[in-house]
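Lab notebook: predicted structure, single chain.

Context: the supervisor wants predicted structures on file for every construct in the current expression panel, including those that have not yet been purified. This is the next one on the list. No modifications to the sequence; it matches the entry in the shared construct table.
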Amino acid sequence: MSTAPPIPQISPAELHARLTAATAVSATTTPPPSTTPTISIIDVRDADHIGGHIRASTWLPSAALTPASLAALAARLEGVDTVVFHCALSQVRGPRAARAYAYARRNVVQEEGGKGQEVLVLRGGFVEWQRRYGADADLTAGWVRGVWAEE
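Prediction complete. Output recorded below exactly as produced.
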């Protein structure tokens, strides 16, 4: 039995740099025709979707992800250059969702054609993101310092 290759990771600093240079695309909108790179961030936290989120990210709880919803997401994000998945720590749900999305996307692309797309997982998840960028309202929306205070 073969295992799927791991989904590559992106550091919070690299994602920040890409967000600065790219056009962020919500999973609920159609990507604009552009020569500027496009990026979409998918937050798959469930009940732990508290204390903030990456600005311009789309919340799709992992508990609600199905093969049909992932195929629909892949179709909506056709034309987006990079899709980044994350959960709280990006150890289980984020990577699992990214792999399932990549599989669903491969099926959509085979049926409809399409350009390549980079699928990544945010290293350290939202915990690491908020540690670096939580207080930056341009990058993080709804951040609540008290939720993330380390004891």
